[in-house]
Amino acid sequence: MLTEIPSPPFKESKRAVRLFTMLKKAGADSVWIDKVGNVIALKKGKKGKGCVVLDAHTDTVFPDGTDVKVKIKGDTLFAPGIGDDTRGMVMVVSVLRAMTVAKIKTQADILFVGTVSEEGLGDLRGVKQLFTSESRKIDSWISIDGGDLGRVNTMGLGSYRYRITFKGPGGHSWGAYGMANPQHALGSAIHYFSKDADKFTKYGARSSFNVGRISGGTSVNSIAFESWMEVDMRSEMPENLDQMDGILKKSVQKALEEHNAMKRRGPDLTVDIVKIGDRPSGELPETLPLIQRAMASVTFFGETPKITRGSTNSNIPISKGIPAVTLGRGGRSGNAHALNEWWLNIKGDMSIQSALLTLIAEAGIVKP
Hints:
Elements: H1 13-25, E1 30-33, E2 39-43, E3 51-57, E4 71-73, E5 76-78, H2 86-101, E6 109-115, H3 125-130, E7 140-144, E8 151-156, E9 158-167, E10 171-172, H4 182-200, E11 207-216, E12 222-223, E13 226-235, H5 238-262, E14 270-279, E15 282-283, H6 289-300, E16 306-310, H7 315-319, E17 324-327, E18 332-334, E19 342-344, H8 348-363
Helix pairs in contact: 1-2, 2-8, 4-5, 6-8
């Protein structure tokens, strides 16, 4: 039902309304939607001094118009977003419902949260809002996002994202020939960047780069007046990310100067470099009580804990030194971010139980 409500980044409101109703029905003491669209449900603790969050994100990577109808083949569910992260949202609701039915009380307050804009250009907008002065102080953070039972993500994979736009006067491909061409400059920038970034990423901490989108021009026989690309860079180490950032900007400047020098007439090209994404990296020690509790819970359910690094909502609290983990949503799944994404309910109940156990251990269970 949730999967079939379209929810691209910045357009999560319809799904948020449905999640609001589900969390209220599941037994929250209060539910509200904050200024950016996060759905937040409070389960009050006995003492109410601490605050633990259980989170899943409400958005998917798929744009408006995508067919999100769930198709069932045998015992497998197929649909864009069926796993990432609609399954996570279901786990958040299920844990709250289980606590209500079993009358489980905790020492600390618990916030059950559906965050907006985790994916793509959303740039963790929802979780960033929760760590501003406008929101309540959070002491521990647990996200549900990706992976099988056993995933314990304690390391944030940092990333920078840019939109690079070359601009020029444009004109007819024959009549205005000799004008500086933004498309040609963009091509050179991609060439220089991919060549130098490839050398850089072969050694040291694992890093990656990708030109994900390019666009520009109006017709085959017109010199473009604008040409742009969107670039994603990731690294395990902040220092490496900063060095790749420098490689990108140097490549863009080299292409700009080269193509302005090549032009035969008309004004120079200009370039705009806009950062559209900034996900901080960081690592937490496995000795933290929250991480130990998550590992113990996974072990209790017969799995070996797998400490991982990823780009999730936990990046923000991890970068601030706040105890945080991202747990797997369980079952079996594949083809995330693809139209043929699927999810299969193999021992999916165990992941819900493991998340519940981790949460109440961290929040401090009140004995009957």
